[in-house]
Amino acid sequence: MRMSKMYFRTLREDPSEAVIPSHKMLIRAGFIRKxxxxxxxxxxxxxxxxxxxxxxxxxxxxxxxxxxxxxPILTPKELWEDSGRWNDYGPxxxxxxxxxxxxxxxxxxxxETFTDIVRxxxxxxxxxxxxxxxxxxxxxxxxxxxxxxxxxxxxxxKDAYSFDVDQEGxxxxxxxxxxAYNRIFNRLSLTFKPVExxxxxxGGSNSHExxxxxxxxxxxxxxxxxxxxxxxxxxxxCVDAAPQDDVEMLPLEEVETPGTKTIDLVAEYLGxxxxxxxxxxxxxxxxxxxxxxxxYVAAFCRGDRxxxxxxxxxxxxxxxxxxxxxxxxxxxxxTGCVGGFxxxxxxxxxxxxxxxxxxxxKNLCAGACHKDHHYINMNYGRxxxxxxxxxxxxxxxxxxxPCCGKPVHLTKGIxxxxxxxxxxxxxxxxxxxxxxxxxxxxxxxMGCYGIGISRTLxxxxxxxxxxxGIIWPVAVAPFHVIITVMKPKDEEQMRLASEVEEALKKEGxxxxxxxxxxxxxxxxxxxxxxxxxxxxxxxxxAGEGVVEYKLRREEEKxxxxxxxxxxxxxxxxxxxxxxxxxxx
Length: 584
Ligand code: ATP
Ligand code: MG
Prior knowledge:
With 584 residues, this protein is of the alpha+beta class. It contains 14 helices and 31 strands.
């Protein structure tokens, strides 16, 4: 491909809304263009990378015997009513209505469609097990689309589904996909880890997220170097502080604490450690169907802790979009809470959720539900109780590991894929049954397996860049070699460029030749920004057949004969490109 003919342009400036490297660089390098919030066009190089990632995913799925199909992006409301998710899914679901008033959604995921296909086609155990998958755009009306392809409203996903006769079958299918995912993310040159995950809106029992390590990631991961625990903070159990069984309960006392609306202020005012206080968080909940307010929730944890929203909604048994922070004034009238001075004693008409470690802790300080007053020496059972007691707290750096007790550490990552054991959630609600050897009717046991193809593209850039631009791993690079011609007007230079280009193409390599009439400085800058792995520069020694050879990821440049440069480039791509990652 000649750059002078290519529909393509790089930008000098970072786009103003981009804050993370992959977003900035993919736009500046001309790989993607923003069309609207969370909606991107892929220009030629970006689309080539996306196709290569898809190709690797496809090869590994096919290798495991999964069969690729295509289903419509638009899915009818009735399917989602069958599974109960039309309401559960919430505002992220992109709903549309046809000219006859029939409702549909742009698929945010496709459990319903795949279950529908299988429920009409499968009748006997002899037809099971199998995997189906597809690669296509998904739509989610994200509350805050951001970070370019990392959280967009249209994004590419590979979604696969497994169908088995029983739990053991599902366990086997899950292991097969787990293995495929490890192979895929290794081939994509990502540094990643499978971590135990919460099952969220999808439902089911076990789940793993495949997390690419990155500072800009939105997933918080709990890791234990001692026992190998790896889990998302939503999933990781946070160990309760040891119960203070031998501490005596002191008499409850209401004390004046003027203006101490935060834990820090009240702890300082009373000379207490924050661990001796109780923190309150106030929420309003909504009905899943009508989305009308249907109650208040007060959640309490130790003053030095934070509440984890996923754990809280799981404890309440409601979807995440059915809860929001409450308006203190409105809630105050209904429940007796007082902003900044709310405690579990004195509240009425609301669901009280108490973190699991509080009942074991003695003589705590909490808001008295009177302005400028707190209680001291609050004790569970005697002074307050909860409607729900559950682990709703967030794990912090250094907390004891729930498996071995050693201190854990926290790190950030990008969730590039997630796999779930769904069990019979969808087959039972949607009626996907088979008959076994004894003519018994049984629900098909399902798993589902997603990879964010476009998010993965961004994650690769996050892990592979420097201050000058992207450094593509060979396996997914849009082209393998960039030939920069210093003076395209010079016939000798262009002749050698063409020879090198042809020789590389003959070996199957993908070559981009920068023959634009730009200053060399501009071309070198662009070559670094675009990040093609091998950089061959043809300049004043073209007559002698000598070129400059450099790898994007290394500092060192060498002047070598063109033949040697070709040999090196071919060797590199054979070795690191798996020999398989070419645009077909
Ligand atoms: P998140 O928690 O980041 O919102 P999710 O858990 O809702 O993601 P899944 O339903 O598991 O996502 O979807 C499968 C994969 O699709 C995810 O692992 C992720 O890689 C990708 N994905 C999900 N939402 C987006 C998005 N808005 N933009 C890009 N990729 C996404
Ligand atoms: Mg997920």
